[in-house]
Design brief:
9 strands; globular; four-stranded mixed β-sheet; alpha+beta; about 10% strand; about 375 residues; three-stranded antiparallel β-sheet
Amino acid sequence: MTYPDGHVGWRAHDHATVRAVLASDRFSIRPDLMHNPFGPGSPGDAPPSPPGAFTDHDPPDHTRYRSRLTGQFTVRRMRLLAERLEVITAEHLDVLAAQGSPADLVEHFAVPVPGLMICELLGVPYERRAEFQQDAMLLTGASGAEADGGAAMYAAFERLERFMVEMVEEKRARPTDDVLSGLVAGEPAGADGALTDDEMAAMGMALLGGGLDTTTNMLSLGTLELLRHPDQVKAMLDDPEAAVEELLRHISLTPATARTALEDVEIDGVFVRKGDTVLVELGSANHDPARYARPDVLDLARGATGHLAFGHGIHQCIGQHLARIELKIAFPGLFTRFPALRLAVPEEELPRRASLVIGGLERMPVAWD
């Protein structure tokens, strides 16, 4: 395919080929090496990603960062977060109910629940959570911040960067039981090879970017799918785990990513030259009829194992277990509390977010009486 900058690159769209590209160490994720498949941009146009922004680094830097984080996503921490999520979900279902029918599911449930879980994960102090969530919403565009050309988003990004540096400094002085504190405890200041405060702050920003907007949009779009298929709500309540896997596959929230060949490589019988960029279509792979029978049909009893909604290979989403926990608790909680839940406006009137990478809804008015 021809990219916006004129580069003649590739697109990988079937399940096996997408997995092969994502699993290969002969492809790079670095934005500064990439021909941008989504808009103007050639290699060298984007600056190198800052140290610590592990989602945009190749090994060995990626390995150094990710290995530190992996140790923080322990079974114990996931259990504690699940317990907190039960409480947070119940509280925000109360908030939604208190608004009265109809109410906006995005504003009162889909945005605050993942936002508070990121606060729990990173250890954001309670007195600063409102400030943190406000800027997080601006950063992701969830509050219409793209309307001014992105100025509000950039300003929020700069504030959050400063906030995360302050958080790392705070955790060094007064650690608590959270991911940032765990990182800081394992990195004595000034020790040879230790992560710097700026690197840890950037790692926190990457966790924020990867865990907030995605889960927010899965909650709203997943609810929309269940409202489209009311006959499958019981299947979701009976087996939330299987239902979540099928919703992740079916929606494929992040439809595509990209990689650039670091050397000449043959993939699926195709010769890809060094420097060529490959658009990797996760959504298409998740709807590959060679992998899933009737792939465009939502079937919550399918057992959608092997989907690529969280990617594959060394860059597979590090927070996927937490995301699954959030969805497995939130969907049953919502439909148990509001069994008559329905859209309050025609579906075609739901305002969609203008995003090339992650789709979602600006608002989702729902009713239940």
